[in-house]
Write a structure and sequence with these properties.
12 helices, mainly alpha, about 250 residues
Length: about 250
Amino acid sequence: MKRALGLYAAALYAFLHLPLLILGVFSFNSSRFTVWEGFSLRWYGAVFSDPNLAEAAANSIEIAIVSTILSTIVGTACAYGFWKRRDRVLSGALYLSLVTPEIVTGVSLLAFFQWIFRYLHLRLGLHTVILSHVAFSIAYVVIVVAARLRTLDGSLEEAAMDLGASEWGAFRLVTLPALLPGIIAAAMLALTVSFDDYVITSMVAGVDSETLPMWMYATARRGANPSINAISLLTVVFFGALILLSERLRERKQ
């Protein structure tokens, strides 16, 4: 029975990833259409020679890295605060941000920026996209880090302070090293969510802040372009390597 369930689960997993496999195969197709005509790397060459695509990818990387760093720092501090002092209202607000539809979040952020910019005389751009990504990424970081914190023994910090360490020293020398696998996992999740986002980004981005998902969506609407297949496969390989790396780091820290 268990073996049969395992086989069914493996078959279902393979079926769900079949579209991704087809996308990868046709990224090496010499034809523009989904008819195999021969192996070719022309679409990968087109990816690296398209200036608009390069600019969009650079914007996505910059936004993802900066927002991941900021959201990881803030989210870790929030999770630590929740661990020290439980608050049902704040915890409920945290989960509310996760279940709120992206379109609602995007509209609210756009309205907020428009209201603020009346006084600051600024415009939409990369800075508004980064702030928006930090806003929705913090919740993911808090949840992942908080799950790690629940496995820790709070008396370890107290023992460190009894031995002469300050509160900051006890956190830095005792709690932070134990949290590191969770922080890395949270950062990887925040990076992936930020790089992938389209709905919120498209609403708060300026004319000079097009991201890779925005470029892919706009290109796909204009018709068949196998360059999308190529850049999609490169993205999957990149984030797959990050996941494997984070798992290796996590196993070493355990």
